[in-house]
Amino acid sequence: MLLEEEAPSPTPLSLLISIGAGCIRPCAVAFGVYQLVKTDNPERVLQKYFNWYYASIGLSSIIRLTLVVYIQDHFGLKVGFGIPVELLLSYAFFFFVGCPLYVKVNSH
């Protein structure tokens, strides 16, 4: 039960992960758009991209508000926090592995 457990104090790693996630989110939309610049029908592709992007944001919010809370209630706060941390670390790994394939735009 959540009331019976003491909430864990934030560790330096968890603070670093939360800062990193906050810095990535505003840039994710623009970064994704740059990957689609060289298409035949850019207007239609961008419309699909934004539809899927915001649909995935909504779906992830639903999962975050239901599944993660369920895990925290039934398995504890450490497991409930550990699973999202592991997922975020795996996303960072795949980002860096795929980095050579990404379209990079020089700033002016």
From TrEMBL:
Entry GO terms, CC: membrane
Superkingdom of this protein's organism: Eukaryota
Primary location group: membrane
Keywords linked to the UniProt accession: Membrane, Transmembrane, Transmembrane helix
Compartments, as annotated in UniProt: Membrane
Membrane topology term: Multi-pass membrane protein
Residues passing through the membrane, by range: 12-37, 49-71, 83-103
Gene Ontology MF term list: transmembrane transporter activity
Pfam annotation, one family: PTR2
Family named by the database record: Belongs to the major facilitator superfamily. Proton-dependent oligopeptide transporter (POT/PTR) (TC 2.A.17) family.
Name listed for the protein in its UniProt record: Uncharacterized protein
Organism (species): Coptis chinensis
